């Protein structure tokens, strides 16, 4: 036996190379075809989209599951009822049932709306077998709708220049790192120094919502150091549309104890901002008043050269808007953004980085604003400044002053906490805040006394700031709140400090005012200086601005 093979039989079972290749080719072709078919098959996609559900660690899981379950039950009951009524109507035995069914249809729509918290009627389109997915989808739709609304609002803005400004502001804000120590700080400080040095009139822009918070005594001192040389400092109380007239009056009275102060609306508000209707305080009229004051000053100086005007202030108070408002008064050429091409009237031969725009033969505008960065020494020297408890609160305060660029805000939650703390004593403002997000009245948590987390969870759900598995992303919600605050969609302001009045006026005598609360006066004769300067700027007409008793008008949505 062993080893002998019969002649004529093949030695091995191995096929020919040609056959092997043929089989390989056919197999590859078959696999290719299967892959192609699988791609076309819709099941393939839906398999991948498996909902991961709510993570166990999510603190509101129970609540959410309950809600989903109740939702499902009610929907089932409604469906059952509709079925029965449809059956009755079909048999024609009960006409009433048909009517009822019609009415019920309306109810059902209402019910769906309620359940989806009024987010979107289209939410019904999504897969009903997965309520969690439906909830997330509808919330996302609401977020998209809201973002679109904001977008179209800014597109519809009458003044294109404003939206350009916003972009510019964002760009520039992005360039600035957190105030206090970035490399770009040096460049900004240099511009600030140049503006103060070169300007005859320094316009110090303050935010009307928190004038003392955006006011630096150090800056005022540095400008005043050059006052004997004829430099003037004027306070510009900007964004007056974001505070009620009574609050504005209080601040004008307070600030005019230090420097001549001019109220201003430098720009139109952001879309959906909640503004107040002030008599005679439009963008055009207030910027015209400022322009007139500057022209009066230039005329009173009667110099051979033009008087130069510089603008300084905290980030985001509206410095560029003030420059643009003044530039827009140039005949024909719309100021546009501060980065617009230098108008033809610009003086040649300027060696610094600051451009000068010639407004007329007597007036020149330095068209780069000087940014004032908040400093801790201000808090010490300003008796009216907010005193933060710790580092976190100090940062939150800066965020609420809009002095921190959005990219540099790592944790916006403390800012929302501080905002709620400030608004809490004013029930009307708390109610308006709830209304902004379409929430029920805001209540402090009975256990912690704090409502920040509860509030942010609700905002996240309303605005579709949801993470994986529909978990509310409270960080993103907090950022939304911070942006809404920055753009005036959330109302809030500080009231001016009340001046102490001597207790018992002698009969027949006028009550005498005691010293201002600011014990450290900038110069001894502040009152005299303010009066003298006001004359140079012919502010007498403006002096009574806002003094007349006025009713606080209704809030107006822009
Ligand atoms: N409601 C309201 N918003 C204003 C007013 N003036 C300016 N703004 C808005 O405030 C935001 C900041 O304005 P900017 O002029 O860019 O402020 P800025 O001080 O130059 O800002 P930075 O360049 O970041 O320092 C913009 O969204 C403006 O539209 C105003 O009078 N009322």
Automatic annotation (TrEMBL):
Q: Which GO terms describe its cellular component?
A: nucleolus; preribosome
Extent of Basic and acidic residues compositional bias: 40-52, 60-95
Q: Name one Pfam family in it.
A: GN3L_Grn1
UniProt keyword Nucleotide-binding present: yes
The segments labelled Disordered in the record are 1-131, 146-177
Q: Residue ranges of the CP-type G domain?
A: 185-374
Q: Where in or outside the cell is it found?
A: Nucleus
MF GO annotations: GTP binding
Q: Where is the composition biased (Acidic residues)?
A: 96-128, 155-170
Q: Where would you say this protein principally sits, based on its record?
A: nucleus
Q: Sorted alphabetically, which keywords does the UniProt record give?
A: GTP-binding, Nucleotide-binding, Nucleus, Protein transport, Ribosome biogenesis, Transport
Q: Name one GO biological process term.
A: rRNA processing
Q: Biased-composition ranges for Basic residues?
A: 8-23, 30-39
Q: What is the name of this protein?
A: CP-type G domain-containing protein
């Amino acid at each position: 036996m062993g080893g002998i093979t019969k002649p004529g039989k093949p030695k091995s079972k191995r096929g020919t190379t040609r056959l092997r290749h043929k089989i390989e080719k056919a197999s590859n072709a078959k696999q290719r075809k299967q892959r192609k078919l699988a791609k076309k098959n819709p099941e393939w996609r839906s398999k991948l989209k498996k909902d991961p559900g709510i993570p166990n660690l999510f603190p509101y899981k129970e609540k959410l599951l309950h809600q989903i379950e109740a939702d499902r039950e009610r929907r089932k009951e409604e469906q059952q009822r509709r079925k029965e009524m449809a059956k009755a109507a079909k048999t024609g035995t009960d006409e009433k049932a048909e009517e009822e069914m019609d009415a019920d249809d309306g109810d059902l729509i209402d019910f769906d709306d309620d359940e989806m918290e009024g987010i979107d009627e289209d939410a019904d389109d999504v897969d009903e077998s997965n309520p969690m997915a439906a909830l997330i989808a509808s919330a996302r739709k609401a977020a998209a709708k809201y973002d679109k609304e904001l977008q179209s609002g800014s597109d519809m803005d009458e003044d294109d220049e404003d939206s350009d400004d916003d972009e510019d502001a964002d760009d520039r804000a992005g360039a600035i790192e957190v105030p206090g120590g970035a490399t770009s700080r040096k460049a900004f400080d240099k511009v600030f120094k140049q503006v103060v040095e070169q300007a005859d009139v320094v316009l110090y822009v303050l935010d009307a919502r928190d004038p003392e918070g955006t006011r630096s005594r150090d800056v005022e001192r540095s400008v005043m150091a050059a006052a004997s040389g004829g430099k003037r400092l004027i306070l510009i109380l900007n964004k007056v549309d974001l505070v009620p007239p009574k609050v504005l009056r209080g601040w004008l009275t307070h600030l005019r104890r230090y420097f001549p102060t001019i109220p201003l609306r430098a720009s139109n508000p952001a879309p959906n901002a909640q503004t107040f209707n002030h008599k005679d305080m439009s963008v055009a009229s207030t910027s015209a008043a400022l322009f007139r004051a500057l022209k009066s000053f230039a005329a009173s100086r009667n110099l051979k050269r033009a008087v130069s005007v510089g603008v300084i202030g905290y980030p985001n108070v509206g410095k560029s808007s003030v420059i643009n408002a003044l530039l827009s008064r140039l005949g024909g050429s719309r100021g546009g953004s501060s980065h617009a091409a230098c108008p033809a009237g610009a003086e040649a031969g300027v060696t610094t980085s600051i451009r000068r725009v010639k407004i007329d033969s007597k007036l020149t505008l330095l068209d780069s604003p000087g940014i004032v960065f908040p400093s801790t020494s201000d808090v010490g020297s300003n008796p009216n400044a907010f005193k933060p408890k710790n580092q976190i609160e100090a940062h939150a305060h800066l965020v609420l002053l809009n002095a921190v660029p959005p990219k540099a805000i790592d944790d916006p939650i403390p800012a929302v906490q501080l905002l709620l703390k400030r608004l809490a004593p004013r029930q009307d403002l708390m109610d308006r805040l709830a209304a902004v997000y379409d929430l029920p009245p805001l209540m402090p948590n009975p256990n912690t006394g704090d409502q920040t987390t509860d509030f942010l969870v609700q905002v996240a759900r309303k605005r579709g700031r949801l993470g994986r598995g529909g978990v509310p992303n409270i960080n993103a919600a907090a950022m939304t709140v911070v942006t809404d605050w920055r753009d005036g969609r959330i109302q809030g302001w500080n009231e001016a400090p009340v001046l102490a009045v001597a207790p018992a006026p002698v009969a027949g005598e006028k009550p005498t005012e005691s010293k201002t609360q600011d014990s450290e006066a900038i110069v001894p004769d502040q009152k005299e200086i303010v009066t003298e300067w006001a004359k140079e700027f012919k502010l007498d007409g403006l002096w009574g601005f806002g003094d007349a008793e006025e009713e606080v008008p209704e809030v107006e949505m822009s």
